[in-house]
Design goal:
It contains 11 helices and no strands. By secondary structure, the protein is an all-alpha fold. The protein folds into 2 domains: 121 residues, no CATH class; 166 residues, no CATH class. The radius of gyration is 21 Å and the shape is globular. The two termini are 39 Å apart. 36% of the residues are buried.
Length: 295
């Protein structure tokens, strides 16, 4: 209880603790970002085989999930020990290379860990110790995982978006106190989830009718609905405007710099995640004019 009292009484201490814990969570999020798409692909292949639409597996596949097998070097297969898996520090000590075969290790791993630690500290400082801070940390970690997966595969897995949506609604039902808190009140959350999903669903089908192309995926609808459940319907417009503006700037810059062709699809999930996090942490001050109208 003394530790909890210290964290509750000192915002700086809670932010420091959340930052350190965030480094550990970031290490786990690296596993989620890498393995979850592969787990989904294996599940889809198994379902296709059951329906007779794909080759049947020759033998039962070994267990592969977020915990099994142990992390190993993809080049030589050497298992990564606990000392080699210390967030950020191990990568620096090993100079970004495998301890066994000296194959390079992507800098993305320590960057995800650092980002998770920094964002966790920012959330803890903003909301303090309590239900609001805990809820904001869960949202932050889930958005980081979704961002990494969408950048790699252009997928926003239901196994992350739907729990985020339902947690937002449950938190609103049992913990929500008003439209200007995290979690928001139940009415704002339900309307946020419904309007969030339906708005992008309508945009998707309108764009497809006009152009014959699909402008986004259903995962974007679910992520936007989840953000609506946590932030309330009042924050849907600022989130989509921030996401669209940042996506347009980065997309146009990539085309101008010739790093991406005009026909190459750009995942929208990361921009939704960034915009949602900024609105959550920036609070109503960030969108004060709109908040005054929405109320």
């Amino acid at each position: 209880m003394e530790l909890l009292d210290l964290l509750r009484g000192s915002r700086a201490l809670f932010a420091a603790a959340a930052g350190l814990f965030g480094l550990l969570i970031g290490s786990f999020l690296n596993v989620v970002i890498h393995r979850l798409p592969r787990m989904l692909e294996a599940e889809w292949r198994a379902q296709c085989a059951e329906l007779g639409q794909g080759p049947a597996p020759a033998a039962p596949a070994p267990a592969y999930n977020l915990l099994t097998p142990r992390s190993a070097c993809p080049k030589c297969g050497a298992p990564i020990t606990a000392l080699q898996n210390v967030p950020v520090l191990s990568w620096l000590v090993l100079r970004g290379r495998c301890a066994g075969c000296r194959a390079p290790i992507s800098a993305r791993y320590p960057l995800v860990e650092l980002a998770t630690g920094a964002l966790s500290a920012a959330v803890a400082w903003r909301f303090g110790f309590g239900w609001e801070g805990g809820a904001a940390l869960v949202v932050t970690w889930t958005l980081i995982a979704l961002t990494g997966i969408d950048l790699d595969t252009q997928l926003l897995p239901d196994s992350l978006t739907l729990p985020l949506l339902w947690l937002g609604l449950l938190a609103a039902a049992y913990l929500g106190r008003g439209a200007d808190t995290i979690p928001v009140d139940l009415r704002s959350a339900v309307l946020g989830a419904a309007f969030g999903y339906l708005s992008l669903w309508l945009v998707y089908h309108g764009f497809r009718l006009c152009t014959g192309k699909e402008g986004m995926g259903y995962g974007d609808f679910k992520l936007y609905a989840a953000l609506g459940a946590w932030l309330g319907w009042q924050m849907l417009l600022p989130v989509i405007l921030f996401a669209a503006a940042s996506g347009a700037v980065i997309g146009i810059s990539a085309i101008v710099l010739r790093r991406r062709g005009r026909d190459v699809p750009i995942p929208f999930g990361p921009y939704l995640a960034i915009a949602g996090w900024l609105v959550m942490v920036g609070g109503r001050v960030l969108v004060a004019p709109w908040w005054a109208l929405a109320r």
